[in-house]
Amino acid sequence: MPKTIVITGASDGIGAAAARRLHRNGHRVVVVGRSPHKTEAVAHELGADHFLADFTDLDDVRRLAADLDRACPRIDVLANNAGGIFGDRTRTTDGFEKTFQVNHLAPFLLTDLLLDRLLASRASVIQTSSSGARLFGRLAVDDLDHDKDFTPQLAYGTAKLENILFTRELHRRYHARGLSAAAFHPGAVATGFATESDSFMKRIYSSRIGRAFMASPEKGAEQLVWLAESTPGTDWISGTYYEKHRPARRTNPQATDDDLARRLWERSAELLRERTH
To answer: Any keyword Ribosomal protein (predicted)?
Structure first.
């Protein structure tokens, strides 16, 4: 049965490749992106609805949630795919470190604002995470902005770890009410990833040699497409982080800490309340 699938970060790379594949397979895809030109181009190609949102501005996320709620009587899949690694430590207009906000706090807010629609649709929420969670992630709930120890790699790895913990807690809180959640690592994919970063990852992703060993965006999108189209509980396990279509064998030790997942959720919600008062 065709599904309504909302994909953030769908104007390029893995998100655009997944949108194209899912559209070809007969689903209604809703394209969300930051760049007006790129987002409109993908949406026009597919004949799909599209919405613009810059995740460095949480008011944009709130507008996006309201727009999606009006446009989509049901949402079968929300793919929180937007994200990236950035350069020097900067704060958004909302006052948060950019990597933390774009990769975790904005999709956390979007999911929360759409929760009633997602529950009514018995939806799946999919997070594009990364093996960077294992390689670089180190989460301290009392310092989510990395005021004490910021590096681009640490901020990115921790944000990808937060994606996994968010998935775990989303499952714990809402799976009994019909919601399913999964996170996945797409692999090293030859996209525009890290172009805004000053880290060593920019050199790798912009290197001809480095890109020669990377997968295509279409290959990187395969797990997102699989999770979106298949059946949780039958084809995949809710609350789980996947690599290569299987539950990851190795993860950051913090990624399985249920108490940490709960505290991250509570602190994220608290930070959002503080900024709206």
So the answer is: no
